[in-house]
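One-letter codes give the sequence; the fold follows as tokens. An example follows:
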Amino acid sequence: MLTYCKHCVMPDTKPDLHLDDEGVCNACRSYEKRKEVDWDARHNELLQVLEKYRSRDGSNWDCIVPVSGGKDSTYQVVRMLQLGLNPLCVTSSTCDLSVLGRQNITNLKHLGVDYVEMSPNPLIRAKLNRVGLTQVGDISWPEHVGIFTIPVRAAVQFNVPLIVWGENSQNEYGGPAAAAGNNVLNRRWLEEFGGLLGMRVSDMIGMDGIEAKHLICYTYPSDEELARVGVTGLFLGHYLPWDGLANTLIAQANGFHSYDKVVEGSMVNYENLDNHQTGIHDYFKFLKFGFGRATDLACLHIRRDRLTRQDGLDAVKRLDGRFPSEYLGKSLDDILRPLDMTVDEFIRLCDKYTNKKIFKRDSSGALIKDRDGNLTKINYDNA
């Protein structure tokens, strides 16, 4: 049986989630603490940090902002421009970029910023997608690595010390840039926050013909290079109230485009619009842990009193964990083709990574699926 937070709808199978004696998860408790934050004081702290790294003579950019073109990165750029900074926006190209994703990147550039995009070798990227999916059940492994490594490499290359990231899951942490003493990033810090997901980049060498020279984009600079530039970073969500819906409204007011319907596996139409592979990533999270993107979003809105818990449960039961037969209008077959993987092979892989303890099975132990391949959890709430 799955045990759920009594305040939101997150199951205790989520990694690093803990329920207290009252049955409330640490994420809900963390949000409660944010209601007590003095945001005016945090804003002043942000201004002090930014002023410290601002280019005095305009000869270089003030900071690097990693961007995808999504709602949050559009919001980040808007805020940096409002604060009078001259950012260099850096994109690590997504694995399977959608038309809408490219449109939103173009919009972001036209906000009035300098922009650099690194597009890793697509043949190697497809191999890494396949390795990630088959070895750890995460097709997005190379993307999650690249969105950290490429901006950091850009910081070293262009001699821009400050990197401004968006939200950090550890909301109480603003990032090393605010430290009074040693605030330079090192590889240990980057590997902790950069999401290597249990695999090292060096593990890829030798797999399917992959060589070290193919992995430059996914490798952090040396500690010596980081120290030479003084590369550091901050999380904007520590200093400004972070709310995905509010970020969306600000982004839309600045040209950001949403999808024309609710995104598959989600409950909204304004996020995860750039990569056709995202549906697979979210589906495997559902198979392994019993929750997907709809659960994530329901919990966020329940904590902000926009949804009742019952409405959240109803939405999750209808929308979460649907078999990803298509995503953003692209068929699963077409999404898998660059990975040299068939839908049948994909389904076998899904069954391999499914946590059999949390889904209904027949008398022989086989997973019960409907005609569309969807599974049913053994319980969607506490008994």
